[in-house]
User: Fold these one by one.
Assistant:
Number 1:
Amino acid sequence: MSADQAGLLVPDPPVTSLEDYRDRGGGQGLERARELGPELTVKELRLARLRGRGGGGFPTGDKWASIRAASGRHRYAVCNAAEGEPATFKDRAILRANPYQVVEGLAIAALTVGAREAFIGVKASFGPEREGLTRAAQELARAGLLEGLTVSIAAGPDEYLFGEEKALLEVIEGNDPLPRLLPPFIHGLFATAPQLGWEAHAPETGHVAEHESNPTLVNNCETLANVPHILSRGAEWFRSLGTEASPGTIVCTIVGDVARPTVVELEMGTTLAELVERGGGPLPGRTLKAAFSGVANAVIRARDLGTPMTYEDMKAIGSGLGAAGFAVYDDSACMVEVARAFSRFLAVESCGQCPPCKLGSGQITNALEQLQAGRATDDDIERIGGWLRSVTDGNRCYLAVEEQVLVSSILQAFPDEVAAHLEAPCPLPRPILVPKIVDLGDGRVVYDERQARKRPDWTYEGEPAARVG
Ligand SMILES: Cc1cc2nc3c(=O)[nH]c(=O)nc-3n(C[C@H](O)[C@H](O)[C@H](O)COP(=O)(O)O)c2cc1C
Ligand code: SF4
């Protein structure tokens, strides 16, 4: 299969009904999972070497096995379709093209880990995707394919943290997107066990049963979309695509300083340079300076654009594949401004449960603003270094690490640009908007312009304050 023919997860034309889905082979993965039973299903996923597409690349078969092995009477399966990573539109592309494969993948996951209830967390603002998911879940249930499994759609807020798995569970439980302490496989949905490991008080009134930890599986939307195809076609077929350590296809997003921003499904191992070409290449007369795989990894320099898009190759250049959503910047962009914009995004989105994260990312952002305005001194650079070292202290979630990794990588990769700002105001005064995507299609991308007005308390300048959840 060539990269072009991939079309597996993003079929064209889109799948519009269960009948259409079944005509194209849909439902066979679930059938095979029932024949195999949970143990062999996990074995098949391990053989396929599928890795989580939510950003971390964690081996999916191992994750499913750990939920099966965890103690607890109730289990849940959750699909993460929150898609909040900047520069990423792939889950929405998958959901628009074929929501049925995602629900089928979730049903296979639930069956395998022993869950009777499953949830799909999706932003309330993702209208067409929510409709597609609801329709797919209803049609699959009506056709008897879900066999006693209840699939519910949980609509969540626009906050970046909604996609963080511990915050996602909070939202499904009806709370704000504040990451809880323990991971989902230890403290799952509707768990009653105390999170700190000891009880500071007697069980709540009316709590008669033993405490429940409800181990919960959380997988990204694209991860689950892969599952029915792997089961129906076999692990060997999946491994025939991509590379040894990163098999399969990956749905990539390319935005920023390219002629035609797009989402495209490619074989793993395709180079980032080829993805840039798929996005129409750089703008006329411009050369690319840097790329970012969302805001969770170190900057990728122009000299590394030939790197294959695999977990191992991206790691080898000191960055990461993330959710394969890339924002690229050309020689008209100021890297201090990029650092400021990304740092501000993370500082605003930080929930503040861990003071060094909220305070530190805010201070780093302030200092970068001073630097950008040509008002910073060497002392301010020192101060940024100090905050970067402590911003992760006591962190509950990975957002604080993102701030540390991303900002320090930019400052290290572009020391001349930093130095130039110490002597005079920015030589490339072009404002950078964080590429938080609202819509993408026909070579045009729409970013969330409201984000620039979002304040650290999650209210918006110029708008009446409203509760987030
Ligand atoms: C701040 C933050 C935001 C995240 N946002 C998303 C998201 O929008 N979608 C997603 O699938 N994973 C997101 N993740 C990763 C999830 O926590 C989790 O690792 C993922 O859903 C696991 O699925 P996978 O194993 O299939 O990759 C985020 C993580 C962090 C720290
Ligand atoms: S690390 Fe930051 S974003 Fe994560 S829980 Fe703590 S304060 Fe919130």
Number 2:
Amino acid sequence: MPSAAQSEMSGDQMNDSNSEWDGTGESVVASDLAAMSQRLHHVFSKMSGKDLLITGGAGFLGYYLVQAPLAWNDANPELDPIRVTVHDNFLRGVPGWLSALDSPALRTVTRDVLAPMPEDEPRFDWIIHAASIASPIFYRQFPIETMDANVDGLRLILDHMKERADGPNPVEGFLFFSTSEIYGDPQPEHIPTPETYRGNVSATGPRACYDESKRYGETLCVNFAQQYNLPIGIARPFNNYGPGLKIDDGRVLPDFVRNVLNGEDIVMLSDGLATRTFCYVADSVTGYYLILGNAVDNPGEPFNIGTQTPEINMRELADRVVALGAELFGYSGQVVQKTSDDPEYLTDNPNRRSPIIEKAQRLLGYDSTINIDDGLRRAMRWYEAQPER
Ligand SMILES: NC(=O)c1ccc[n+]([C@@H]2O[C@H](COP(=O)([O-])OP(=O)(O)OC[C@H]3O[C@@H](n4cnc5c(N)ncnc54)[C@H](O)[C@@H]3O)[C@@H](O)[C@H]2O)c1
């Protein structure tokens, strides 16, 4: 017998094989983690009984990067658990979700990635370097710290891998988080964008601290992979959204949803014409683990991780959030256009961004499975259930 909430599921939800959630915010995360645990079984099996380090694990992507292997541990009690360690400087505090996780397989360590690896830490078998300031609002405030995490913090890990490469316990896989922003503002003929596109990026503009340090980070990764034969994978995420992304992060979707949950009009700080393809975070994190798990076969290779369609503009995104707000919460606001107080808010903001993901599909078996309306519905239900909303 379906519950009342289940019987209210939309066609989108019912058609989506990953959508075994009952319409409540609490069930969003549980169903996402169950699906990821299944899709990544072959990757997590390789990590069984091993130590996994996630730098920057307290951030948005950390939310599922940390919880997915723990969910796999819970789903496979007969197998040795993956031991997960988070290194983060916790500059924005320890998030409530992380302190609430109650797993013997999880450790958190307060450490800036610019500090050398403590001697008493385990010899990590698998490493993910996600530590960076990722939100434009914050990286423009802290440009030096942003560059340092992407370049010097990365270099420490690469040197550490190199030192261990010929020893008894080499690192089995490493994932560097780059960004789709390394393409800058592509000319129209390069959209959708393949990994081979070289980019159209300013070296000195307000976003350069982020874009250029990610570009150099990729160059470091490629050359360490080639020179020392190291299993290094590179992810280029395209506009992820969903559970874990703080409502005050300054990225566009949480800004819109905050307006809806506060019963205010949605404030759009642009002409609304810039387009993006938005990828639900349970899909993208699956893609990141596929890169990590297959890094030994694709050393130094960058992968676009995102979704190819639909490419929608900010006005369309706002309209969808209004419609879903009405469906889910009886919202009756509208979209209003304003100018940001920040004069650099839109400087070097790409007009269009859309990936070709064929390489990840072909070499990793990656795909995005959650359509935009289902993903937005899940995200909005999740935000509704957050105490800090
Ligand atoms: N979320 C996206 O859509 C997206 C898109 C492109 C690239 N990325 C990249 O993915 C990675 C994770 O992104 P996110 O959205 O989770 O970012 P986030 O800002 O939400 O989280 C980053 C985490 O890194 C930590 N951190 C920052 N500098 C650090 C340092 N020097 N030492 C230790 N910890 C530090 C922060 O405290 C935070 O917990 C980043 O490298 C980001 O650039 C994300």
